[in-house]
Amino acid sequence: MEKLLQIEGLKVEFKVYEGLLKVLNGVELALEEGERVGLVGEAGCGKTTTMKCVLRILPSPPGRITAGRILFRGQDLLRLPLQRMQRVRGRGIAMIFQDPTAALNPVFTIGDQLMAVIRHGSRDAMNKKEIRRRAIAVLREVQLPDPERILANYPIQLSGGMRQRVCIAMALSTEPELLIADEPTTSLDVTIQDQILRLLNALVERRGTSVIFITHSLGVVREMADRVYVMYAGSIVESAPKGELFSRPLHPYTQGLMRAVPKLTGGGIAEGIPGRIPDYLNPPPGCRFQPRCPHAWERCSQAPPPLKEVEDGRQVACFLYEEGA
């Protein structure tokens, strides 16, 4: 299948008072046409920063992309003129942010905001009545009752679950080729989370949209993704089809994540991973996971391991899987 999105060697620094935070350390990620990919890792590992680079909405300053390419249908997004990049944001790539309250402007009605998105991202010229009809249709598609009334509401008049459905409607209203869902259920209670995930899954399957799910939850990944990328401290450490990753994780960090999942059937307390994510001001030399890794050896502190294919469709960044190791 054709590669829809390809991230190669992406590096990002943030300038702060103390110095430079070396946040992304050569991210490698690829997404094929119609594929659903999960991106998992601890808080602060760079998942959202990576996706902000894709959309070129990284706050600059203090953020700065220092190396790498982001190819969308063969075009390097980092070198596109701003006007063409704005068209990509509307029609090619859309993003659902994790906090719907922050994503929606409180001083404009839902109708004002949704219709502005449709007007900006529509592939065809549409008059005001057509834009309104489209807005009502997408609100109905995300199962919001009485969409005509909701268009006249302000965000504060809606519940958290309804606001998140509005954000999903906005993201899908222009029929993007790629949807980035950045922990879209973080601020919702458990029952609403399940409804939103089921709705999102049904919509992307019906439309054939490619998706990147950013999440902390391995359960969400298991439900929503075809393939999984595991991220640690600014680097991709493992990539595998969902079934293979859960049945046989290869990277020591992925193994630690699996052991940290609470066991609802009993059998003891879930283990954690000792230590913490490294200081980005002074990251450890070599592999950034080596201070926490139970299998670390001398070479791990000398150079960062490259992300290499070790089996068909599986990649891992670990010297334990080099030939002869």
Radius of gyration: 21 Å
| Record field, number of beta strands | 12
CATH topology: Rossmann fold
Show unreliable segments: none
Which whole number gives the mean pLDDT?
Answer: 88
* Main beta-sheet annotation: 8 strands, mixed
**End-to-end gap:** 32 Å
CATH superfamily: P-loop containing nucleotide triphosphate hydrolases
Q: Quickly name the level 1 CATH class.
A: Alpha Beta
Strand order of the largest sheet: 6-7-8-3-9-10-12-11
In DSSP terms (H or I, runs of 4 or more residues), the helix count works out at 11
Total number of distinct structural domains: 1
Structure description:
The chain has eleven helices and twelve strands. By secondary structure, it is of the alpha/beta class. The chain has a single domain (3-321), classed as 3-Layer(aba) Sandwich (Rossmann fold), CATH 3.40.50. The strands form two sheets. The protein has an eight-stranded mixed sheet, with helices on both faces. It has a four-stranded antiparallel sheet with strand order 2-1-4-5, with helices on one face. Strand 1 and strand 2 form a beta hairpin. The protein starts with a strand and ends in a 9-residue tail after the last strand.
Summarize the topology.
Elements: E1 3-16, E2 19-32, E3 36-40, H1 47-55, E4 63-72, E5 75-76, H2 82-92, E6 93-96, H3 100-103, H4 110-121, H5 128-141, H6 147-152, H7 160-172, E7 178-182, H8 190-207, E8 210-215, H9 218-224, E9 227-232, E10 235-241, H10 242-247, H11 252-260, E11 308-311, E12 314-316
Parallel strand pairs: 3-8, 3-9, 6-7, 7-8
Antiparallel strand pairs: 1-2, 1-4, 4-5, 9-10, 10-12, 11-12
Helix pairs in contact: 2-4, 4-5, 4-7, 5-7, 7-8
